[in-house]
Amino acid sequence: MGLNTFPLRLARRALLACALGLAASAQAQTPFIVMASTTSTEQSGLFAHLLPAFKAATGTDVRVVALGTGQALDTGRRGDADIVFVHDQPAEEKFVADGFGLKRLPVMYNDFVLIGPAADPAKVRGSDIAAALQKLGASSTAFISRGDKSGTHAAELRYWKQAGVDLAAAKPAGYKECGCGMGPALNMASSMGAYVLADRGTWLSFKNRADLQVLVQGDARLFNQYGVMVVNPARHPHVKQGLAQGFADWVVSPAGQAVIASYKIGGEQLFFPNANK
Amino acid sequence: MSTPLISLQAASVQFGATAALREVSVAIHRGDRIALVGANGSGKTTLLRLLNGLLRPSAGQRLAGQGAARPVTAMVFQKPFLLHFSVRRNVQLALWLAGVPAQDRVQRLQGALDRVGLGALAERPARALSGGQQQRLAMARAWAVQPDILFLDEPTASLDPSAKREVETLIDEFGRDGMAVVMSSHNLGQVKRLSQRVLFLDGGRLLADLPTDDFFRRPDLPSEAVQFLKGELPWA
Amino acid sequence: MDAFSQSVGLALNLITQADATLWRIVGLSLRVSATACCLGAGLGLLMGAWLAVARFRGHGLVVGALNTLLALPSVVVGLSVYLLLSRSGPLGSWGLLFTPTAMVIAQSVLVVPLIAALSRQLVSDALREGGDELQAMGASRLLAAVLLLAHERVAVFTVLLTAFGRAVAEVGAVMIVGGNIDGVTRVMTTAIALETSKGDLPLAMALGLVLLGVVALINLAVGLTRRASQTPLALGAAS
């Protein structure tokens, strides 16, 4: 059988495709670490600003896997990431206490804002989040919850508690859980004219606003603290401790903190470094 | 009488509840030119497949090449199955499957195509050939492996008259060249032209095994055979 | 309709600007899915051929299981491969998670049942037509099955194209095992998912149109090469 039969020609082309495919995926030898972080942080655009500066300083690539906070911490527990960068202090402290992470270093904070329709049917406008949620709990206006174990979701649950609303007992009439990320939640709020708790970063980048506005901001409780933790090599020996520690050290150093402060959307600073405060 | 190439001893074939062949005993010798006749469903195809080793008997025995090497066989079907390749490749495949060594394949291939008159069409896609040409290709495939016995299952039933003549000529020539030929047919004229011995089947039983002339003329045939001949003759 | 035409405009812009990031993402999508289809074809075609001829107790069960796997959600495949490749999983020491190789593995797992089930049916039908004759020529059942795959190569090719379509369009598996890492494992579908979750729907739709356009081009190229390779035969058709 000659070598030019159609199936053999096809096989040759296919093998060539495979070879190219695999060769191209044998990536360059740049040292890298895998960082598990949150979707809201990535979508805020911070990493596109921060990581090139880190690479320029140290030559290390950071490969960000963006998940919900719960998932990100799980990824660290499984040893699939070298370093974890999330914003849920109680969960982070538990992570370290359980032996999955080395020391927790505070890095920066941003804030949450309560978004809602410009008409504000529930009359929540102001700077007190607990009061706002109390009013929302009593009204039947729609409220979108992310419901996805994310840092934002955890914060939302804390504020409901502070407002005296027991979600386990009885959800407010308009409470809707979407099990989704910040963007889809904002989309839902925009199309339904609903209220939603969002981080400022995602809100500033969000393009589909309809008549949504920031209604509650400035409450100290709305501040959202970020922490970074190197995954414990005692648990997972393969973790690139040296390189990961390099990132942790850099991001809390004056140089790293300055890069964080310099990130702005529309002239507005999103993240406020507080590593040594 | 020389040792038979293939013989069946009281062989039966059962398909589930149906008995397709019942206790058939027959022997094929070198140089035989045999026709299988019988009504539809009488077991002709099953007998051919059993003789060629495509089936195993459910009872009784099939013996091939006692003492000597196993006989080489080839089979031609009513509608030839040709692969979506060229005429040449189809014959090459038959040679390769039969285990013919590489150095002999080229010669045999050319010889086979020339023998059946398809030499000029070697590069054509096999499926683009006419019905008669396709059947000749099947004959070439068979000839190429130099079989001791050639089995044919109603080889001309689907062909127009001129194609039928071409294929019959080839069968006749192969027989004269020394190949044993075992062929089933509905066409009694064809049976008279091409065979020296007739096997008559009815309901899975072999009811007659006679020289061709005798089969067509003897008065003391089994009644089923007589009816068969009566039923068929107006169409011959 | 306005959002849609906005997306079409965006898509055309993306293409004409020849954005380097976009084309890197497109390239990775195609490489990952093509490689997965190669591997899937190797395994799937053999499995299909074998299943068409094999006779054993429980054959019906295996075929039923295979047909069920046709409806395997890509997310489930992604999850299973993730658990296999995770550092806490059995193959963790290979360090493949969050790499394009992991994505190839996941998509291969996704397309093998598809290729096997379809080629099994193909071979089975072809065997009914020519299995006897091939057997009479001396081929074993399995060899006959493989020969029939070559015989039905046009249909086999369609099966492979179908598998490629399934692979290049899926997002669940590559998102989970790849992690959608910018510049490393981001492919078209995960990029679309990302833009959707950021709320940038026109851009997400535009990326979707670009993906469709690329696949359409591939199909066009395939169709043209097929016609070209058939022309000499068409000219030499029987008289």
Give a verbal description of the structure.
The complex is a heterotrimer of chains A (277), B (236) and C (239). Chain A is an alpha/beta fold. Chain A is built from eleven helices and twelve strands. In chain A, the strands form two sheets. In chain A, strands 1, 2, 3, 4, 5, 6, 7, 8, 9 and 12 form a ten-stranded mixed β-sheet that branches. In chain A, helix 6 (129-138) crosses helix 7 (151-162). The longest helix of chain A is centred in the first third of the chain and has 20 residues, at 6-25. Chain B has a domain at 1-70 and 181-236: 3-Layer(aba) Sandwich (Rossmann fold). Chain B contains eight helices and nine strands. In chain B, helix 3 packs antiparallel against helix 4 (131-144). The two termini of chain B are 33 Å apart. The mean pLDDT of chain B is 91. Chain C is 79% helix and 0% strand. Chain C contains ten helices and no strands. Chain C has one domain: MetI-like (MetI-like fold), CATH 1.10.3720. Chain C is globular. The chains are: A alpha/beta (277), B alpha/beta (236), C mainly alpha (239). At the A-C interface, helix 1, strand 2 and helix 8 of A face helix 2, helix 5, helix 7 and helix 9 of C.
Q: Biggest β-sheet of chain B: count, sense, barrel?
A: 6 strands, mixed
Number of helices of chain C: 10
The CATH architecture name of the domain at 1-70 and 181-236 in chain B reads 3-Layer(aba) Sandwich
CATH architecture of chain C: Orthogonal Bundle
Strand residue percentage of chain B: 25-35%
CATH topology of chain C: MetI-like fold
CATH homologous superfamily label of chain C: MetI-like
Assembly state (oligomeric): heterotrimer
Which strands sit side by side, in order, in the main sheet of chain B?
Answer: 5-6-7-3-8-9
Please state the structural category of chain C: mainly alpha
Count the beta strands of chain C: 0
Q: For the record, what CATH class of the domain at 1-70 and 181-236 in chain B applies?
A: Alpha Beta
Radius of gyration of chain C: 21 Å
Protein chains sharing the most extensive interface: A-C, 42 and 38 residues
